[in-house]
Specification:
By secondary structure, this protein is of the alpha/beta class. It has a single domain (5-245), classed as NAD(P)-binding Rossmann-like Domain (Rossmann fold, 3-Layer(aba) Sandwich). It has helices at residues 15-25, 39-51, 68-78, 97-102, 104-132, 153-173, 194-198, 206-219, 229-239, 242-245, and strands spanning 5-10, 30-36, 57-62, 86-89, 135-140, 178-185, 188-189, 204-205, 223-226. The protein has a 7-stranded parallel sheet with strand order 3-2-1-4-5-6-9, sandwiched between helices. The protein has a two-stranded parallel ribbon with strand order 7-8. It is globular, with a radius of gyration of 18 Å.
Length: 250
Amino acid sequence: MANAKRIVIVGATSAIAIHCARQWMRQGTVKMTLIGRDPGKLDRLALDLRARSGDGFVETRIGRFDDAAGIQSTIDAITDTEQLDIVLIAHGSLSDQALCQSDLAMCQSELLLNGVSPALYAEGFVQKMQAKNHGTIAVISSVAGDRGRKSNYVYGAAKGLLTRYMQGLQHRLAGSNVKAVLIKPGPTDTPMTAALKSQGAKLAPVEDVATTIVKAIDAGQAVVYVPQKWALIMMIVQHLPKFIFNKMNI
């Protein structure tokens, strides 16, 4: 598979990642590595993707998400000699804000999983990409990282870390052939947001979100809000005066 597009997805069993993977498998010959924590889910996803591509190759790997050494080991196991075309880092969880406020261990875990861990994966993969001067690293953050709000500031803080990290990474990679794409979805219809959906929240279809993400990655777009309306919404939220913002129940 010398001419196959080489794609790695970290957090591959997340709903957005699954739909991105399905679209890539339809684009042509692909060699894809799926990284996750649940071997059963990974195997089922691999079977699904293989069925969608006559000549694609899909492999699975159990990854570590909680420490730098484990993350480095996961990266080294799949990038010793190969040139990577796309790495999508998509893992995370929608933090329970109230629980994080009352349980410091949970707060630490959520900050690490949603912020530090994706940044470490990105840093490790970028080292490999820079050695080849080729590839695109894409990280799914969130609109929640644009301004801290009382309803989800632990999750938002982790995603804000990713935003600043990716800005610096893009600056570092300027002028090279390695691209860094920061993805900021708004609320999306996935199992992670089931509670929001039950409360009547309007959520973006995950298939549409994935389509936008795949197009942005293929184009090497620096920052993409999904859906695009969130760019305007969050610009307004970021610039609201504090005396107005503090009266809002968001």
